[in-house]
## 1
Amino acid sequence: MENTIRRIGILTSGGDAPGMNAAIRAVVRAAIHHGVECVGIRRGFTGLINGDFITMNATSVSGISRRGGTILYSARSEEFRTELGQEKAVATCKMLGLDGIVGIGGDGTFRGLHDLAQRGIAVIGIPGTIDNDIACSSYTIGFDTACNTALDATDKLQDTMQSHERCSVVEVMGHNAGHLALNVGMGCGATAVLIPEKEVDLDRDVIEPIRDARLIGRTHFMIIVAEGVGDSYEIAKKIHDTTALDVRVTVLGHVQRGGAPTSRDRVAATYMGYNAVKLLLEGKTDRVVCMQNNDYVDFDITEALSMKKGIDEQAYIVLRDLSSVN
Ligand code: F6P
């Protein structure tokens, strides 16, 4: 089939994630490799509506793989949810002569891409979010870096908690999902991990594990709370009131979204960016690049959005079994 793709646009949207720059580089370089021009759309769908773009070439993406954030900026666009916003975005695509758009982000980004596809623009999505909550993909760009950033923080906290024989309640991001919390909890050997996918009973899930840990001589405790669970300060108060432990709360917040991407994120981002361009060249649209069984495949966006990602039940069991030994 003759390649009808001559110029594409690339954008990042929603919450940024470490590794997005590596994906941008891969998209731009893959496009150039195939003789396709690439235009950078700045500030996600807002930029598409406003015609906010920069032309990109091989050198404009030199050395960006190691940098966190996104050189194209990111935003969440209310206007794009409206008919008028989408019409303006399509007009920009026409004005710029774009034959396709690659969008990097989470489910909100994919919804936006699907809206464009409905209006005749070829689109491919790349999962980029620290939440790892895209069901069709076992991995999303940024997750590994965010886990490592959070672990760096919990390691430091464990030092001071040990000195003062305290209990640390650490709130990690994840939106409505507990993947980040579960991974961080396992990595730091937490006494307990609370995630929104599991009904929370503070006596059973936190107080009892703390008692068990005390019985084997532990004097400091690490409780990881996914932000989707609720108020970490209330959880801390309950722990203090019930156990008399000195409790400190640390909300890690946006620090988890920054920093140089890990090897895992750079590599996944590079493969995904490269494959996204290939899909456009093959005439595919309305699809998302994803990882399944360590392989990069593609998936229909609507189907992808209708799927719900469960947590790693095995990890949850292992974590609980290891923290309730006495
Ligand atoms: O989706 C990524 C994420 O960092 C979530 O974990 C978090 O709930 C949200 O974005 C925070 O969004 P904002 O950057 O708009 O505060």
## 2
Amino acid sequence: MQELIESALARIAAAHTIDELEAVRVEVLGRKGVLAGLSRDMGKLAPVERAERGKFINSAKQSLESAYDGRKNEFERAALAGRLNREWVDLTIPGAGPRPGALHPVTQIQWEIEDLFRSMGFTVLDGPEVETEFHNFDALNIPPDHPARDMQDTFWLEGGNLLRTHTSPVQVRGMEKLGPPLRMIAPGRVFRNEAVDASHEHTFYQLEGMMIDRDVSVAHLTYFMKTLLASIFRREDVTVRLRPGFFPFVEPGFELDIQCLICGGSGCPVCKHSGWVELLPCGLVNPHVLRMSGIDPAEWNGFAFGLGLTRLVMMRYAIDDIRWLQSGDLRFLNQFRTAVVR
Ligand code: DAH
């Protein structure tokens, strides 16, 4: 019996891993182990021997358990030391810090223009991107078979609705909802079913403007457009000219050109040596359009304009490919991290 115990103690001392140690414990101290076997036999012994056996087993159990506990402790301490060595974290290293976002250049220019027009008494309106055929075309005096519908390749949706091809339908909604007198702008996203290349996108941004009042003239239109352009291009004054242009919702309709800001009008590659750059279409609101939105053209008239926000951003920052704007490419976007605080 003494030998049995000694060899068990030796194996405990020699265990290489906690699993080996555990195996020895089960074999010696477990329910079906050596010690349990020795106590089971006790019943057959004479009382004196039984008492001796009892003492022996007790002291053997004690020394085995303390040897086992000691070893187990060693293994656990070694395991902990290993983990601490592998998993330590240097809490004094500075954190990664927040990475603040920035406003997209289209948003920046949009907000700038909104602020300007608000300061001149205009309301900023929002309209739906999924539009009815009525608001996108009919109410703007674009009849069903009119070639102007072909000018704007439309994404048609089930049920006869469409993705708005311009922000002009918000004029109609503004007139319907607010009535005259009215000063409104409507920035927003528009969609056209177009092949994408460096200067065409299926999705881009426009800003529509409209003013309805009594005795509105082309002089009012020119004044507001010059104020807008001076603010956007940060000039004291900009020179503009109007050329005739056709849009069914305005009469007369114009293309507004701006004198080239690069060469001052003397001619350069940017203005294709003409001295002028085409900037935005506009005109006096067609009386039919007023009437269709419930406004009496005998009493009220107005002007409207459509500004290509995407194009304006491209001009301002000399961006040569429209696809950058929706690329989500941080190499592009990070160049517009100016602090815009509102
Ligand atoms: N809605 C036109 C387009 O997207 C642009 C436009 C032209 C708007 C003339 C106007 C305007 O308000 O008067 O092609």
